[in-house]
Write a structure and sequence with these properties.
Elements: H1 4-16, H2 31-44, H3 55-71, H4 75-89, H5 91-98, H6 109-120, H7 125-143, H8 146-149
Helix pairs in contact: 1-4, 2-3, 2-6, 2-7, 3-7
Length: 161
């Protein structure tokens, strides 16, 4: 079983290895992080995202929302998220932690869902925390965006006079 300390060490090691990081996109999320959330968003938001031509734009809205959400977090939380994203971005640690190999966009929704369920139900607390971090970032990015409100029948917050 991984202790928090071991996971942090593994994250630090993964971030230092050649090929584990990709170029930043100008914000907190690296290119690989954007691919991660682009793949996870349709799975976590199953049934909530539009179908058809608007789907890709909606997924990009989620990824941009994750970027904004992370930017508002304290530096210590951002550092922990960076370690998680680095672990998931480095193929050997991704395989070890998720059982998934390959680039995020190439992994089937069924396999992504299975990994998320495994983490959500894991007896390892650190994996459950990591699942909820990914889940909450995606949900905050989508449901916190006024563009999504009409899809769920939410008129928006009441106007105060």
């Amino acid at each position: 079983m991984f202790s928090r300390r071991e996971a942090l060490r593994l994250g630090l090691l993964a971030s230092l290895l050649p090929g584990s990081a990709t170029a930043a996109t100008g914000g907190f999320l690296m290119v690989g992080d954007r691919a991660l959330f682009g793949a996870l968003a349709p799975v976590l938001l199953a049934g909530a995202l539009p179908i058809g031509k608007d789907r890709a734009a909606a997924i990009e809205v989620v990824v941009a929302g994750v970027e904004r959400a992370v930017a508002g977090l304290p530096p210590s939380t951002q550092a922990e998220l960076r370690q998680l994203f680095d672990l998931l971005g480095f193929a050997p640690t991704r395989l070890l932690l998720t059982g998934l190999w390959g680039d995020w966009p190439e992994i089937s929704p069924e396999r992504l869902d299975a990994f998320l369920v495994d983490w959500r139900q894991s007896s390892i607390g650190l994996l459950r925390v990591a699942y909820f971090a990914l889940h909450e970032l995606v949900f905050a990015a989508w449901y916190g965006n006024p563009q999504s409100w009409s899809r769920i029948g939410y008129p928006g917050p009441p106007e105060l006079s």
